[in-house]
Amino acid sequence: MRRAATDHSAEGMLWQKQKAFATAVATADPIAFDEGDVGPFARHLVESFLDRVLWGTYWPHPNLKDPMPDDGLLVDYISSIATTAAWQHKLLVDNPDRLYWH
Fold first, then answer.
1. Which of 39, 41, 45, 89 has the smallest C-beta neighbourhood within 10 Å, fewest atoms?
2. Does residue 93 contact residue 50 with C-beta atoms inside 8 Å?
3. What is the chain's percent helix, strand, coil content, to nearest 5?
4. 54 in helix, strand or coil?
5. pLDDT digits (tens, 9 = 90+) for 14-52
6. In DSSP terms, which residues pair with 55 in a beta bridge?
């Protein structure tokens, strides 16, 4: 999956929405996020395809029963995958604006 996402994004054929990873680890220990597979993979996508990635959640999480993700914790993960203020602005503002409005 990592290679397919990387190949398609590099060719400009794919936008990445960073949401499923956060839902999957919403109740996990933040250290596990950073040291496991999910955090590094999400960071890789942001770093590699900064102009074609955005962030979101599955809020209001209609398909989840238990445990329900903590949306505040999900927001806290943003700085773990987009490590500078400029990258966070692209992830949260610039890229969604380009994808949905331009």
1. 89
2. no
3. 60, 5, 35
4. strand
5. 776 665 555 555 545 555 566 566 778 888 888 988 998
6. 18
Q: At which residue do the structure tokens 């962030």 appear?
A: 55
Q: Which DSSP state fits 68? A: P
Q: What is the distance of C-alpha 16 from the center of its chain?
A: 8
pTM over 0.85: no
Q: Could you tell me which of 53, 52, 51 has the C-alpha nearest to residue 81?
A: 53
Sequence-distant contacts of 61-69: CB under 8 A, at least 24 apart: 61/23, 64/23, 67/26, 67/27, 69/22, 69/23, 69/26, 69/27
> What tokens does 59 get?
């809020």
Residue appearing with tokens 């109740």: 27
Residue partners of 67: CB distance under 8 A and separation at least 6: 26, 27
Q: CB of 53 within 8 A of CB of 91? A: yes
At 81, the amino acid letter reads: I
- What type of residue sits at position 16? Q
